[in-house]
Design brief:
five-stranded parallel β-sheet, Rossmann fold, elongated, about 450 residues, Helicase, Ruva Protein, domain 3
C-alpha cells in the first residue's frame, strides 16, 4: 500500500495544529507538527515530507530563517506560509525568497486543501524536471531500433504486449544496439507514460556515490552531504526507472536494490524513515547475467526479479536487411544538423557498409555516417567516405570473399587494431570511432592482446 504524502506543519498555535491536522488527515495526508523553528527543522531533516506549512511568527528561530534553511537543504519541497492579515507583507516577502504560496488566517478547510494540493503538484513537476526526458528526440531516435527484419518484427510484437503491463523487463543486447531507446519506447507505451523516465548508468560512479545517487541521502550523513538529496527512485515516482548495464552493480548495491524491489520502499543514506516508491523497473545488460550468477558475481534472486520478461535485441550483423534504413535515417539526421547537402549513399558504399560486421552495432554505424557527412565534399557518399571514417578498407574487402573463412572475432580484432593504429593508440578517439565506451574498448584490447599499440600512457 502506498504511503500517504507527509506534510510538516510548523506553528506554535495548538488550535491551528489541531484544526489543520484534522483537515489534512481526513484528506489522506500524514501530518507531523512542530511548535518551534528548531523543532521543525529537526523533524524535517529526519523525515520525508512533500510540503511544509510554516508560520512566520515563531518562538526562537523566525519563520524566514526556517524557510531559508529548508530551501538550502531541499529546494524542491514547497513551503506554504501561514500568516495573519497584519503580516501579509511579510508573507509576500517570503514568497519572493522562495516560498511557494501563503495562506492568510483565518482560512477555510477548502483553501487549505487547495493550497496543499497545488504545492504537491508543483513538487512533482519540479522533481520531474530534475531529469528532463528528451521525449520528442527519443521518439525520433527510436527509428534506430526499428526495421523490416523478422528479428525486429518479433521483438516489437513482444514490446507491444509487455509495455502496458507493470512487469519488470530485462533488455539484453550488445553494446550499441539501442537498449535505452527500446526502454524509452516501452515507457512511452505504458500506463506510466505521463510520469518520469529516469535513467541510471550503473557503471558511471563509484559504489559510495552510486548508492547516494540511487537512494538519496540526508544532509550531513557523510562528508560532502551539504544538503538532503532525493535519489533516482524517488525522482521516478509513478514512472519508470531504467537501470542500464545492471551487471556493473556491486553485490552490496545488488542486495539493497533487491530490498527496494521487494519492499517497494527506499531509505536515504543517513535516514531512518523508509519512503514508499511506486516505480516500474526496466534493466539492460550487455553481459551474460546467467554466467555471472553461476560465478557468484550477480545475485540469483535479483536476476529473477529483473528477468520477468526478457527481451533480446539482435546485433546489427543479424539484421543486415535493416542497415539501408538505418543508414538513411542517420544520413538525413546529420545532414540536417550539419547543414550539409549530402543526400544519398552510393550502392558501392552501401555494399561496403553491409559487408562489415559492426562490432559496435548501431552506435558505430551512426558515428561512421556522422563523420562521413561532416567530411564529405560531395552530395553522395562513396566507399572512400565511409572507409575513412572508421570502416577500414580491409574490412570492406573482406566482405567480398575473405570474410567467409574468418571468424567474427578475427574480423573484430583486425578492425580494432586498424582503428587504434589510425589514431596512434588513442583509446578515447578509438572508442568514439567504434561507438563503444572506453571500458568496453579496454576489455577488447586485453582480450585480443593489443596493449602494445596503446601504450601505458595513452588517453
Amino acid at each position: 500500500m502506498k504511503e500517504a504524502p507527509g506534510i510538516l506543519l510548523i506553528d506554535d498555535d495548538p488550535a491551528v495544529q489541531d484544526s489543520c491536522g484534522q483537515v489534512l488527515s481526513r484528506a489522506g495526508y500524514r501530518v507531523v507538527t512542530a511548535s518551534t523553528g528548531e523543532d521543525g527543522l529537526e523533524r524535517f531533516g529526519s523525515g520525508a515530507f512533500f510540503a511544509v506549512l510554516l508560520d512566520l511568527k515563531l518562538p526562537g528561530m523566525g519563520g524566514l530563517d526556517v524557510l531559508r534553511r529548508i530551501m538550502e537543504t531541499s529546494p524542491e519541497t514547497p513551503v506554504v506560509i501561514i500568516t495573519g492579515y497584519a503580516s501579509i507583507e511579510s508573507a509576500v516577502e517570503a514568497v519572493k525568497k522562495g516560498a511557494f504560496d501563503y495562506l492568510a488566517k483565518p482560512f477555510t478547510p477548502d483553501a487549505l486543501r487547495l493550497a496543499v494540493r497545488r504545492a504537491l503538484e508543483a513538487r512533482k513537476t519540479h522533481i520531474e524536471h530534475l531529469y528532463v526526458n528528451k521525449e520528442l528526440e527519443a521518439r525520433t531516435e527510436f527509428d534506430m531500433v526499428t526495421g523490416r527484419s523478422r528479428a525486429m518484427a518479433r521483438l516489437l510484437d513482444v514490446v507491444s504486449r509487455v509495455s502496458p503491463t507493470d512487469s519488470a523487463v530485462l533488455i539484453i543486447g550488445e553494446i550499441g544496439t539501442g537498449k535505452e531507446l527500446l526502454a524509452r519506447e516501452i515507457h512511452r507505451h505504458s500506463l506510466r507514460a505521463e510520469a518520469a523516465f529516469v535513467v541510471v548508468d550503473c557503471g558511471a560512479l563509484a559504489e559510495t556515490l552510486f548508492e547516494s545517487e540511487l537512494f538519496g541521502h540526508v544532509k550531513g550523513s557523510f562528508t560532502g552531504a551539504h544538503q538532503t538529496k532525493h535519489g533516482r527512485f524517488e525522482s521516478a515516482e509513478g514512472g519508470t526507472i531504467f537501470l542500464d548495464e545492471v551487471s556493473n552493480l556491486s553485490l552490496n548495491i545488488q542486495s539493497k536494490l533487491l530490498r527496494v524491489i521487494q519492499e517497494r520502499e527506499v531509505t536515504r543514506i543517513g535516514g531512518s524513515r523508509p519512503i514508499k516508491v511506486d516505480v516500474r523497473i526496466l534493466a539492460a545488460t550487455s553481459a551474460d547475467l546467467e554466467d555471472l550468477v553461476r560465478k557468484g558475481r550477480f545475485r540469483e534472486d535479483l536476476y529473477y526479479r529483473l528477468n520477468v520478461v526478457p527481451i533480446r535485441l539482435p546485433a546489427l550483423r543479424d539484421r543486415k536487411e535493416d542497415l539501408p534504413l538505418l543508414a538513411d535515417h542517420f544520413l538525413r539526421k546529420y545532414g540536417r544538423r550539419s547543414h550539409r547537402n549530402v543526400t544519398a549513399i552510393s550502392p558501392r558504399a552501401l555494399k561496403a557498409l553491409q559487408d562489415y560486421d559492426w562490432p559496435g552495432n548501431i552506435r558505430e554505424l551512426e558515428n561512421t555516417i556522422e563523420r562521413a557527412v561532416a567530411l564529405s565534399k560531395k552530395e553522395i557518399l562513396e566507399p572512400q567516405d565511409v572507409m575513412g571514417c572508421g570502416l577500414a578498407a580491409g574490412d570492406a574487402r573482406m566482405g567480398q570473399g575473405a570474410a567467409g573463412s574468418r571468424s567474427l572475432e578475427d574480423v573484430e580484432k583486425e578492425h580494432i587494431r586498424s582503428v587504434l593504429l589510425t589514431h596512434l593508440g588513442n583509446r578515447s578517439r578509438t572508442a568514439e570511432v567504434l561507438g563503444i565506451d572506453r571500458k568496453t574498448l579496454w576489455a577488447k584490447i586485453k582480450k585480443y592482446g593489443l596493449e602494445k599499440i596503446v601504450g601505458k600512457n595513452s588517453p
